[in-house]
Each structure stands twice: as structure tokens, then as C-alpha cells.
Amino acid sequence: MGKLARRNITVHSEDCSGMMLIDRVTTGINGLDGLLEGGFPRGSMVLLAGSPGSGKTIASAQFLYHGATKCDENGVYVSFAEQKEVFVNNMARFGLDFLELEKKGKFKFLDMATTTEAGISETLNVLIREALSIKAQRLVIDSFSAMALAFDKKIDARVILHAFEKMMRQTGSTTLLLVEIPTGNSELGLGFEEFVADGLILFETIEEKIGIKKRAIIRKMRGTNHNQNYSNIVISDQGISLMPYVT
Amino acid sequence: MGKLARRNITVHSEDCSGMMLIDRVTTGINGLDGLLEGGFPRGSMVLLAGSPGSGKTIASAQFLYHGATKCDENGVYVSFAEQKEVFVNNMARFGLDFLELEKKGKFKFLDMATTTEAGISETLNVLIREALSIKAQRLVIDSFSAMALAFDKKIDARVILHAFEKMMRQTGSTTLLLVEIPTGNSELGLGFEEFVADGLILFETIEEKIGIKKRAIIRKMRGTNHNQNYSNIVISDQGISLMPYVT
Amino acid sequence: MGKLARRNITVHSEDCSGMMLIDRVTTGINGLDGLLEGGFPRGSMVLLAGSPGSGKTIASAQFLYHGATKCDENGVYVSFAEQKEVFVNNMARFGLDFLELEKKGKFKFLDMATTTEAGISETLNVLIREALSIKAQRLVIDSFSAMALAFDKKIDARVILHAFEKMMRQTGSTTLLLVEIPTGNSELGLGFEEFVADGLILFETIEEKIGIKKRAIIRKMRGTNHNQNYSNIVISDQGISLMPYVT
Amino acid sequence: MGKLARRNITVHSEDCSGMMLIDRVTTGINGLDGLLEGGFPRGSMVLLAGSPGSGKTIASAQFLYHGATKCDENGVYVSFAEQKEVFVNNMARFGLDFLELEKKGKFKFLDMATTTEAGISETLNVLIREALSIKAQRLVIDSFSAMALAFDKKIDARVILHAFEKMMRQTGSTTLLLVEIPTGNSELGLGFEEFVADGLILFETIEEKIGIKKRAIIRKMRGTNHNQNYSNIVISDQGISLMPYVT
Amino acid sequence: MGKLARRNITVHSEDCSGMMLIDRVTTGINGLDGLLEGGFPRGSMVLLAGSPGSGKTIASAQFLYHGATKCDENGVYVSFAEQKEVFVNNMARFGLDFLELEKKGKFKFLDMATTTEAGISETLNVLIREALSIKAQRLVIDSFSAMALAFDKKIDARVILHAFEKMMRQTGSTTLLLVEIPTGNSELGLGFEEFVADGLILFETIEEKIGIKKRAIIRKMRGTNHNQNYSNIVISDQGISLMPYVT
Amino acid sequence: MGKLARRNITVHSEDCSGMMLIDRVTTGINGLDGLLEGGFPRGSMVLLAGSPGSGKTIASAQFLYHGATKCDENGVYVSFAEQKEVFVNNMARFGLDFLELEKKGKFKFLDMATTTEAGISETLNVLIREALSIKAQRLVIDSFSAMALAFDKKIDARVILHAFEKMMRQTGSTTLLLVEIPTGNSELGLGFEEFVADGLILFETIEEKIGIKKRAIIRKMRGTNHNQNYSNIVISDQGISLMPYVT
Fold first, then answer.
1. F109 Cβ contact partners less than 8 Å away, ≥ 6 residues apart
2. What residues of chain D lie within 8 A of the CB of F236, using their CB?
3. Which residues of chain E are within 8 Å of residue C82 when distances are taken between CB atoms?
């Protein structure tokens, strides 16, 4: 099945994803699978890009939780932005019990917030080791922006991205890479992540008369005839869902 | 209660905040608690960002005053922009008697305006020492922008922010970090504070036909199903309040 | 009265300013005092920012003249942009006789246009010496932009601003700092003066169908519940006045 | 016939292109030939520029496939962005069987994703060698943006482009060069590719009320009285087609 | 009368300018004097800023010609952009015979187009020498932009402007300094000329439905209650005139 | 006749240009002469600026062809962007037979595409030599943008432009300098060519509802009372023409 290769798309069906020419993994985000012909192509690296507070973290948490509980795919959450306890408690509000998953050996939270430049190789080795130890097939990096900050500018962010790709090739996982769009800015991240990734979903924040509206759109998904329309983002105590867009 | 860890969100209720899964601290800003499911998550670092004169200083002063007088939480105001006397007199106009609090050992004002680059370590040590001496649980930094100015560009602002986080971890306090948006600019601070902070409230200045209107919006607050709409900012001799937005 | 400290706001009234909690100095600009609860807080550093020709110079001249003739507060005009004779003659058109004031020892004009980088320390010492010699309590710097130009970029403009603050602390004067907004630009000065100053008044130039309209707005004034609306700027042979805004 | 020279436009007709003064190659993209007086001038270097997910990859794959199956022109796909298996599988969805072509010696996929700066000369030699080995007359570079990334900034992207031109001169092929326009940006690539290329087709992404619309326009094609209007981009399981534009 | 000092504004009237408190020189541009209370303040440095082809050169030529023929004020035209013959012939079209003036010793054209960086001191000495030799009281620099180009960036343009000011102080002349606004740009020159100059007149190019409209506006003129409205620029074989603005 | 001097405008008429005070050369572009009082001033350097594909190359080719066949003025086409064969073939489509002109010694094509930095002096010498060898009086540089690219940034583009001017002075020719405006950009070239050139014609590309419209406008032409309105650009098999503008 060629799982040793990243982006290895095997031409057969898997249990959790139905019969498709391209092997897909369901996303765990209500309303998204139907926009993607069933889910992300297995082994893809997909960017979730948006301004702070747009729902990226919740979405990626649901992606991991769903994988572990429904698709028998373990997951690793790599964080450069917050500590495990905060993440666990925040997600508990949505009924996602990550401590339970962790006890069952189906989930790992890697706290990278204190990593320095000197530690990048070591960081990645730790990542690979941890991911392999639970045979993770789903990965979240939160966020590429915070990660690039953690290291000094001398180490090109491209080098880091490159190292990540190698790592993913070794593990064969489907990865969500979170990218921040700062307030007052419309450019995405560092400007190059977009064309090396397999997919890109924008979590947009639209200023309306009385407040902020959140909507999502799939800008790119290789190997997929994806939906071209906006979806409303709804965040409730069930987590995040995508609903048909009403203007 | 894990106060040794920053962002330690303990899963129980406290006197001043009611029964919630996430431990919250009431803000002291009239109209804001209701938009935040009761208050800031305890231990959060929240950015208050806005143009000069938008009300950030008054809001952060009320946050500290309320904490000291109503929630038995002492506070420290760290200023890189003005001297204590000016602050005290300005806040006295709103009925906030900080001299009294200071006498009671419930408040400290740290005048950092004269700090130079050479003194950053020393500055932070002073900060920690002072905060611990009154067991402060609320902190205001006014402002991250003025602070970054005080030090030479050689010391990366990120290093400073990082040092602050460590300090907050030691004290376990809830912190408001003020960030300036200069006139004619829509980008916020240095572009990265947003994604390392736990929350972000924008104090916007809108140009209308006859003058300036001030409004606030919560862009991000981790662990909180926050309100998405604008609020009118009203500044009276009672201080600053948020009212429902009327266009 | 604590005049040794800059920004020392003493809590009592003075002859020229009525009974207020915050000690204020009347501005000498017709229509402005009423927008500022009576005047500038004594000891403030206030930015007057605007494009060339927007009326900043006339306004600051009236501030000094009024101080010397009505409030018994001597003043110093520090110019990096023009020579004394030009200033004197231009202001004479508005009935402001600065030569007379100078003879009475109530006014000094410091011509800094020829100052070079090597002379900054000396410049500031001269300034302090001159200001103290007539016990000046009002100061105008015209302009921070021209001043930053006079010195090589190597000497950070922040260093200059810092030196000025120290100087003002020594003299305890209320200061107007003029800042230029170049044509085609909306950003103000160097981007940082705004948040270290106590107040900011914008002198805006609005392009309308048949020509240019000038209007002013108070963006920030610490310790003051300032007016939020635009005012029309009217320049006549009486000088500059602010009138209620008509669109 | 001067095939040794790049951009050698011979003045006679070829089988696959009809009778024209300028020798043209049909594009393989439904609807495009008619907008180009029959096809691309043989030997041209044409930029396909657009945001991620706009259809550039599918279009360039069809260009190669059509050349190999209908015009007896072999082709090489040079990729700096993805691996062969992914490409092959993605294109199989549209009925383009590249494995078959490869077996018949009519197609080669060059995986350059792992090329480093040190290897540029070697890379280009490999390219030339491979292209000549199957006598390729059609070439796709995916993408110039990813390629420029792969090499350190010290090696000017212009040097790379220059090296490519030399290579194309040796092989005499018609080349599509893919250029990425990052999200939130309207500038194309590095700003200079446009005027050294012979042609430029923009694959635009237009934000409409309910979602994204894709349209194409020919901005430049030397030696061709090209169509000036937009075309709708339609992507179906037949691949990509251009249809008359309806707003 | 203090003509040795630049910007020496003597308080008396002169033949050519009527009775005014501020000594003024008539401009020679039809329609402009009335907008300036009679003319430019004697000794001013006035910027004429506009895009290429907006009429600045013709206006400045008329200023010199009028000075020499009507006000007995000789003039020097310093050009960094074109040669004397071209200038002379172009102006002859408008009936301005500069060769005649030159013969009478009332006009000098200084061709600086070939000046290099090494020659700046020498250039300025030549300028001063030539200006004094005919006792010039009117000066045109065409253009500050071309001049800054002629010298390497190492010599700060500010240094050049400074040197010019010294030179003008020595000659006591009224000077027009031409500044170019490049196409697609709204910022004026290098951003600082505006606030060191005494006056600023914008020659604007407005894009309308069928073509280009030219209009002028006085943005700043020290010591003058100048007109605030736009004027239409009309260029005929009489030269350039300002007419009341019709939209 | 002063042909040794660049921009030497002799005050007499020439055969090809009618009776004018300024010596003019007809342009060869249908519809343009009438907008320019008969043609370009002899010896001018005129910028043709526009986005790729806007018609600059065809226009400049017609300028040379017309000069050689109708005005007995030989011409040189200096190209940094394409090879002679491509140029020749492309122009043949419009009925312009440059091979014929070349045989008659009335036209030269200089292929500079392979010139490197080391070769700039040599390049210019070649240019001058070739131009003088056929006594060329018309010159086209295609393009200044591509030329600046060919040389390393260390050699200032200004130095190159300066060298060109010297060369033109030696030959006394009328020159068209092509400048590229990249997609998504409104600034023209490097920002300084405009004010050293004698004329500027913009070839604009306007995005309309259904496609692209091309229009031209004369922004500047020294010594000419040029038309101020837009013209439609029409490209047919007769080449490029300017027609009255219809919106």
C-alpha cells in the first residue's frame, strides 16, 4: 500500500471511506465531506488558513478525534501555541475527551511551545518518534506561523516545511497545517505554503454591519472535484460545522 | 489549583465567577462579561488592541480595580508610556482610587518608561518580584508597542514577549496586553502577538460623517463561545462600558 | 506644585484655567477649549499632526502668544523649518506681535534649522538653557519631522524624542509637537509618536469637488473627556479658529 | 526547419496544425485553440498563471497528453511540487492514462521536488538528457514558483529562467511554464517572467456572492491575433475546458 | 532690506507687487496671482509638483520670463533634464524668447544634465557664481527628482536640498523647485521636500471618462491666505493659465 | 542641423514632416500623428509603456518600417527579449517585410538577449557602431525592463539609461524606449524613466465585463500640444492603429 511514501494515494477503498478511485479519509467536520467527494485524499497535506478565532483549532481537533474514534486512525496534535491542559479543557467543552484517547494510546499531544532554534532537528525527531510509536495516521500542526516564529529567521521557514514533508513521508499520515492570517492582512502566511500543499481551505472572517460572520471555502484540493461555494461556519457546543451559505 | 503554570485552567468554580467548566474571572468592564460567557478564562493573556485614545487604558484600569475590590485579586499595572501620578489622577476622574488600593497593598504601579535595553532582564525580574510580593493575579502591560520601542530593535520583540510568558507562567495571572494600532494603519502591532495570545478584543475607531465613533469586538477568546457582534463603546465619568451596537 | 516633573498634574486650580480636578491650560485657539473640558492638561505633550499648510503653525503660535499675554506663561518656539524673521512676519499678519513679547522676555525663538547630527546634545542643552532662562511653561517644536531629518538616520528618532521628554520633565512645560503627514500618505509621522504622547489632534485636509476643506479632530487627550466630532478649521486675519462642522 | 533554435518559427504547415503562416501546435484544451488562431506558436514559452487550484495543472497535463496521442509529439512533465504517483492518479480521474504513455516511451515525469541548490546544473542536464531521449517537443514546468523556492535566493531566479531558455533552445520544444499567484496577491510571480515569455494566459479566481468562479483570459501571445475576452473555466471528469463567458 | 538672507521678507512694497505687508513677487502665470494675494512671498522656495506633462516646466519658464521682462528680476533656469536648445525652442512656441533675454544678460540656462556625484560642490559653486553674475532674483530647479537621480544614493538628497537652501540664502532669490510624481504613484517626491518648502502647488492629472484633465491647487503658501479651490489648467499657445474650475 | 547633439531640434522643416516650428518625424502609427501635431519631435526619446501584449512591439516596428520606407530614415531594433527570426516572422504577418529592408541596408536587428553585465560597454559600442554604419535615425529599445534584467542589479539601471542617452546624442536619432508594466502593478518601470524622457505614451489594458480593452493615451510630449484623450487601440492584419475612443 505504499504507506512509506508521503502522498501515496493507493488505488483501492478503505473501510472508513467508501469506494473511490482516490483513497479518502473522512474529515470529522460536519458538512465538509460532502464538499470534498467524501473526504481528504489520504496522505494529503491540507492548509487550514484563517484569522485568529476563526475555528481552525476546533476543526483540526475534530479531525483527529473522529479519526481515532471512528476510523481507527490514531493522531498527533503538535502545538507551538498552547499547552496540553488548555487544549484538553477547551475541547472538553465540545464533548471531545482527549484525555481518554490519550489513555488508550490513540492520541498524543506534543507541546512544542518551548522549542528553540537549536532544537529543530531534535523537535522533528521527537515528532517522528512519537507519531510512529502510536502508528499515527493523522497529524495536526498548530500553527505553521507560530512554529516559524519559534525559530530564528535565519533558519528559513522553507527548510522547516521541507523537514516536515520528509517526516510526513516517513509516517504516511494525512496532515492539517494551520496557517494564521493576521488582522488587517489578506496575504496568507509566508506566501509559499499554498503551492506546496495539496489542499487549502480558507476560514474567512467577514465584517458585516452588526458584527463578524465566519465562512469557509475550499480553494484547492488536488485530486478532488471540490465544491466552489462558501459555507457558513457554525460553532456550537457540538463543535464546528459547515452549513450552506446564506448571505 | 496549579497556579504555577500559566494558562492553567482549573476545572472548578471560584467565588467571583460562578459555576463554569472553565474557570473565569469577571472583567470589571460593564457589558463585557455577558459577551464572554462570564469573563476571561483565568490565566489567559488577552490583547486589547486599538488606536490611540480608543479606551484601552481605562478598560484595563477597571479590570485591575474590579479585581482588587470585588474579587480579592491583587493587580500590577506595568507602564511603558506614562508616570504613576498621571495614571492615578486620570483614573481618579472615574472614581477609581488607586492610591487607596496601593496603600492597602492590593495594587502596584510599575513605571518602566525609563527602562533601556540593558535593563530588560532586570526589568522582568523586578516585575516578577513586585507581582509576587502582593500575590498579584491580574496584570496589565501598557503597552507592548511602547515596550518594544524602549528596547533597541536588536532585541527581538519576540524575545520580550517570550520572557513575559515565562513570567506569567510563574505568577499564574490573567493578563491584559495593550497593543497600539497607529493612525492610518490597519495592521495590529507587529503581526504575531495575535496568534500567541489567548484572546483579542479590538477597540475600533470608525470615521463617520460628523466625527469618530468607537466600537469594540471580540475577535478571539479561547475556550469561550464569545459574542460575534460589535458593541458601542461609551465613556462616561463612570468609566468605559460596552453597549449594544446601534449603527 | 511639582513642576520639576514632566506631566506633573497637580490637583488644584490655577488662575487661567478655572476649577478643575485636572489642572488645565487654555489653548488660545478659539473653539478648542470647549472641546477639551477647558484646555490641555498642564504638562502634557500634545501632537498636532497634519499635512503641509493645514494650520498647525498658526495654531501653535497662538498657543504660545495666548500663554504669554493672558496666562503669564512664557514660551519657546523651537524651529527646524524656518527662520525667526519669517515666523515673526507671518504671525504679525494675524496681529501676533512676537517681537514685542521677545523684548519683554516672555518669548524666545530658537532657530535650529542649521543643527546637524553632531550637535544634538548641544542643541538640547541650548533648548533647556533658553527655556529655563525665561522660565518657559509653554513649548512648541516645529516640527518633529523636520527635526528627525536634520539628524542622520543613525541617530534613531526615538532617541531624540526620548531626549525631549527628559528635557520637558526638567522644565515642566506643556508642549505642542508638530508632526507632518506628507501628501498621498495617511500614516502619521514615524508611527510611534502617537502612543508616547498624551494627546493627538489631527488637522485633516479633505479633498472635495471644488477644492480642499480643512477640519480638525481630537483623537486622544489623556485625562480628558474630549469631543469626538470634527470641527471646521477657519483661518482668517484673526488667526485659526475651530467652528462646528458642517458637511 | 531550424528546430535547433528555440522559438524557431518555421514558415510552413505541419500535419497537426493546418495551413498557417506561423507554425502552431494545438493545445489539447477544449475551446482554447479557437481563441489562438489554431494553437500556440510552435516553440513558444507560454506562462499559465493563476492562484492555487485554478486549473493550471490539469490544463498542462492535457497539453502533453494531446501532444503525445494526437500530434505525435512526446512530452516531459517537470515537477517541483508533487510526486509522479500523485500526478498519475489525479490525471487518471480525467481519463488521461500517463502510465500507458510512459510505457510507450512517449512521456516522462521528472520528479524534481527534492532538488537542492547545489543540483541546478545537474538538474538541467538531467532535464535536457531526458527530453532528448524521447525527442520531446512539449514541456511543462510545474511550477516556476516552486522551483525558485527549491533553490536558495542567492541563485537569482533569473539565472534559472535563463538556463531554462537555453535548454529549450536545444530541444526546440513548446513549453508551458506554470506560475503561482498567492492568495491575497495580484502580482504575478516575480514580476519579470511576463515580459520574457512569448505568451501569458491568466487563470483568474473571482469571488462572487456565493462562492468562487474561475475564468481565463489570454493577455499576450506573440504572433497571434488572440481573443480578448474572458472564458469560463469548466472542470468536469473530461478535464478542463474553456466556454464562452457568461457573467 | 536683508537680501543677503534667504527667505528675507521685507516689510515694504516693491514696484512690481503693490502695497502689501509681505513683499510679493508676481508669478507670471495668468490666474495665479489672484489666488495668492498678489504673488509668491519674495524669497520663498515653492514646490511645483506634478506628474510628467502636467505643465510645470511651462509655468516655471513663464515665472522667469515675466520676472525678467516685467519686474526687472533676472533669472536662472537650472536643468537636470534637458538641454538649452530644446528648452529654448519649446518655449519659443509660446512666444517666450529666451535667447533674447540671454543676450541682454537677463537670463542664464545652466545645463546640469551631465553632472555627476563628484561634481556636486562644484555644481553648486557654478550655480551661485552664475546667479550672482547676473544678480538673479528668480530661480528654477528642474527637477529635484532628476537632480537626486544624477547623484548616487549615497549622497543623501537631503544634503543636496540643504546645499541649495544655503545657496538661495546667499542670493536671496525666489525659487521654484520642480518635483515629479511618477505615474501610478500619489506620494510626492521623496516625502520631505514638502515640509521644508515655503509653498506647494500641485499640478494634478485627473483621469476622466474620455481622457486626462489637468488641474492645479495650492496646498501651502506660508504667509499667504491662499485660495483653497482647484483651478483648471489651460495650455494654449499663450502658455499656461489657471481658470476657475468646472467639474 | 546639429545632428551631433541628441535632442537637437532644428528650426526648419523636413520633407517627411511638413512645415512646423519644431522638426517632427511622422510615427507610422495610423491615427497617432494627428494627436501629436504631426509626429514626434525629431531627436526625442519617447517611452512606450504598457502591460505585456498591449501592442508596444507592433507600434515600434511600424515606426521603424515607416521611417525606412517613407521617410528615408534607417532604423535599428535593439532587442533584449526575442530573436530576430521571431520578430521578422511576427511582423511579416502585418505585411512588414524587414528582411527586405535589411538586405537594402536600411534596417538592422540587434539581438542583445544574451548580453551579460560584463558586456554593457561592449554592447553599447556595438549599438553605436551598427547604428552609425547605416546612418540610423530611428531606434527602438525593446525593452528597458528586459535590459535592466539582463544586467545585475549592481549596475544601476540609471547608469544604463545614461549610457543610452550619450549614444543617442552621438547618433541624433529619434528613439522609442519600451517599458513594461507587470500585471497587477500600476507603477511604470523603475519610476524614473518618465521624467528623463521627452515623451510618454501609455498603452493601457482596461478590464471590462467581458474581457480586455486596449487604449492609449499621450501623457507627455515635450514641445507638443498633444491630444489629452484616450484612443482605442485596434490591432488588425494591417498592424496597430489608434481610433477615437468609444466607451
1. F76, F77, F79, F84, F87, F88, F98, F102
2. 225
3. 7, 198, 222
Shortest Cα distance, chain F CAs vs residue D132, angstroms: 23
Find, in chain A, the residue whose alpha carbon is nearest to that of B158.
Answer: A149
CA distances from D149 to A178, C241, E176 (A): 20, 59, 49
Contact C198, B87 (CB under 8 A): no
Q: Give this prediction's pTM.
A: 0.83
- pLDDT > 70: percent of chain E: 78
Q: Tell me the chain F residues in contact with residue E212 when contact means C-beta distances shorter than 8 Å.
A: 217, 219, 228-229
Q: Which of F191, F222, F229 sits opposite E211 (nearest CB)?
A: F229
Comparing CB atoms, the residue among D9, D187, D247 nearest residue F86 is D9
- Provide the CB-side half-sphere exposure for A210 (13 A, CA): 7
In this structure, are residues F64 and F140 in contact, taking their beta carbons and an 8 Å threshold?
yes
**Residues of chain D neighbouring A245 (CB-CB closer than 8 A):** 210-211
Residue D106 grid cell? 512517449
Alpha-carbon span D90 to D142, nearest angstrom: 15
Q: Given the C-alpha cell 481563441, which residue does it identify?
A: D35
Chains E and C touch (3+ CB pairs under 8 A): yes
**By the 8 A CB rule, do C205 and C184 touch?**
no
Check CB contact under 8 Å for C182 and E202: no
Cell numbers given for B229? 457582534
Give the CB-side neighbour count of residue E77, counting CA atoms within 13 A.
Answer: 31
pLDDT of residue D205: 86
* Contact between A213 and A230 (Cβ < 8 Å): no
d(CA E156, CA F130): 39
- Dig out the grid coordinates for E21 from the structure: 505687508
The percent of chain D in helix, strand and coil, each rounded to the nearest 5, is 30, 30, 40
Q: What residues of chain A lie within 8 A of the CB of D180, using their CB?
A: 194-195
Cβ–Cβ below 8 Å for E223 and C90: yes
Write down the H helix ranges in F93-175.
98-103, 120-133, 144-150, 157-171
d(Cα F225, Cα A194) in Å, to the nearest integer?
51
- Output helix, strand, coil percentages for chain F, rounded to the nearest 5: 30, 30, 40
What lies within 8 Å, CB to CB, of C67 at 6+ separation is: C25, C28, C73, C74, C75, C137, C138
C219·B81 Cβ contact <8 A: no
Cell, residue D68: 503525445
- Judged by CB atoms closer than 8 Å, whether chains meet at B53 and C221 is answered as yes
Closest in F93, F180, F235 to D195, CB measured: F180
E151: nearest CA partner in chain F: F158
- Cβ-proximal residues to E9 (8 Å cutoff; 6+ apart), any chain: C85, C86, C89, E22, E23, E41, E42, E43, E223
Q: Please indicate whether chains D and B are in contact, defined as at least 3 beta carbon pairs under 8 Å.
A: no
Q: Three cell numbers at B87?
A: 495614571
Bridging pattern class, strands A138-142 and A75-79: parallel
The residue ranking higher by pLDDT, F59 or E156, is: F59
ipTM of the complex: 0.78
Q: What is the largest CA-CA distance in chain D?
A: 52
Q: Do chains F and A touch (3 or more CB pairs under 8 A)?
A: no
| Contacts of B among chains (3+ CB pairs under 8 A) | A, C
For chain D, list the strands marked E by DSSP. Answer: 24-25, 40-41, 45-50, 75-79, 107-111, 138-142, 174-180, 199-207, 212-221, 231-236, 239-244
Distance CA D201, CA D50 (A): 9
- Min Cα distance F13 → chain E (Å) is 14
Q: What is the pLDDT of residues C47-101, one digit of tens each?
A: 999 988 889 999 999 999 999 999 999 999 999 878 888 899 889 989 999 999 9
